[in-house]
Amino acid sequence: MSTASFGVTRSPRLILFGHGQRFALGRTAVALGRRALLCTDPRFGAAPELGALVDNLREAGVEARVYDGTEAELPAAGIHACVDAMRGFDPEVVVGVGGGSCMDMAKLVSLLLAHDGPLDRYYGELNVPGPVRPVIALPTTSGTGSEVTPVAVLADDARDLKVGVSTPYLIPHAAICDPDLTTSCPPRLTAYSAADALTHAIESFTAVRREPTAALAGERVFVGKNALSDAYALSAIGAIARWLPRALADGADGQARAGLMLGALHAGLAFGAAGTAAAHAIQYPVGALTHTAHAVGVAQLMPYVMAYNRPACTDEFAQIARAMNVAGDDPERLADAAIDAVAALLDGAGVPRTLAELGLPQDRIGWVAAQSMLAARLVTNNPRPLDERTMHAIVAAAFRGDRAWRG
Question: Which residues form a coiled coil (predicted)?
Answer without folding.
Answer: none
